[in-house]
Amino acid sequence: MLAASYRNPQVLCRAAANAPGDVPDSSTHGGMSQYERIIETLTTLFPVWVVLGTILGIYKPAAVTWLETDLFTLGLGFLMLSMGLTLTFEDFRRCLRNPWTVGVGFLAQYLIKPLLGFVIATTLKLSAPLATGLILVSCCPGGQASNVATYISKGNVALSVLMTTCSTIGAIIMTPLLTKLLAGQLVPVDAVGLAISTFQVVLVPTIVGVLSNEFFPTFTSKIVTFTPLVGVILTTLLCASPIGQVSDVLKTQGGQLIMPVALLHVAAFALGYWLSRMSFGESTSRTISIECGMQSSALGFLLAQKHFTNPLVAVPSAVSVVCMALGGSALAVFWRNRPIPVDDKDDFKE
User: Fold this and answer.
1) Would you report the helix, strand and coil content of the chain in percent, each value rounded to 5?
2) Which among 232, 161, 131 has a CA at the least distance from the CA of 6?
3) Which of 51, 57, 59 lies closest to 244 in space, CA to CA?
4) Which of 77, 131, 331, 348 could pair with 205 as two cysteines, CB 3.0-4.6 Å apart?
5) In the predicted model, what is the mean pLDDT of residues 243-263?
6) pLDDT tier for residue 162 given thresholds of 50, 70 and 90
7) What are residue 295's DSSP bridge partners?
8) pLDDT at position 25
């Protein structure tokens, strides 16, 4: 749903319509309504809400644990629906016009990240359930928070949203397949069950959103004016709830989990960027790096809860929520203060 903030031409900064890396100037802000300025502020403060949610989840878990499996599923599905509401058939045609750029991002998401998860889990000799959880979250698609981080980092927001969409659709096959291949030797993996859940929670709501936007644009345009604010609140809850549900484990074993999960994200950001720089410009490389390092940890948590009997499998996803948001936002702020070269190569065709 955070993506809606950046795809709706009437909301926030209209970043998706800007040239790659452009950040609206004061004149753009002057054209905003007070409501739009509030939405922009609340959305770009997303990492702050995650930190507050994490603290709340650890020390007052009852405040967020009411968002359990069924409600959590509904909330995640609503997030996917909202992303679909910001997309059109033209977005998928743009994907065909940029196969190399989008394809590299897709491979970074489903090749680099899963292999990193497997290598880190085996090298650090994590227990079977924790290793499985780390591999599972590394096989999840890109998260909507990556669109916010891309905007802050002066990356290409339109490309980020498109990559998130492609990895989300690909998740129905890639997430269960890669989890089965990489974690099946550690614990039994129900690949079919994972695929069905991913289809129900991710693909169906996204498709419904796209069709609604195509055939009922007037109705959709009214909805997406307030979905960003709802998205910020809902995303924060979807981040805080997993922390609250595993707070007891985090208090006793959190220390040993922080390093492998943080290492997973740091390595993914670094590899995503440096491998991209071999072929692409600065703006596109920043975008691919963030897409590679930030994934839907909430989906990983939900799949772990529904398809693995050992509750420890869900813990890495809960830790990943925090590491992803903090790492991605820190990198975005760092890049925001490093200007894009004037002659930067535009690798994405609108």
Assistant:
1) 75, 0, 25
2) 161
3) 57
4) 77
5) 80
6) confident
7) 142
8) 44
3-class secondary-structure state, position 142: strand
In angstroms, the CA 5 to CA 83 distance is: 10
Whether pLDDT at 19 is above 50? no
What is the arithmetic mean of pLDDT over 231-260? 78
Distance, CA of 229 to CA of 38 (rounded, Å): 9
Residue with tokens 């989840």, as numbered in its chain = 57
CA 117 to chain centroid: 17
Task: For the chain, state the CA radius of gyration.
Answer: 19
Comparing CA positions, the residue from 289, 92, 70, 109 lying closest to residue 201 is: 70
User: Would the pLDDT of 279 be above 60?
Assistant: yes
Q: Cβ–Cβ contacts within 10 Å for residue 26, how many?
A: 7
Of the two residues 189 and 23, the one the predictor is more confident about is: 189
Gap between the Cα atoms of 98 and 94, Å rounded? 6
Residue written as token pair 């200007």: 339
Q: Dig out the tokens for 337 from the structure.
A: 């203060």
Calpha distance 191→49 (Å, rounded): 34
End-to-end CA distance of the chain: 22
Query: For the chain, how many residues are written?
Result: 350
Sign of the Cα pseudo-torsion (165, 170, 172, 177, in order):
negative
- What amino acid is encoded at 193 in this protein? G
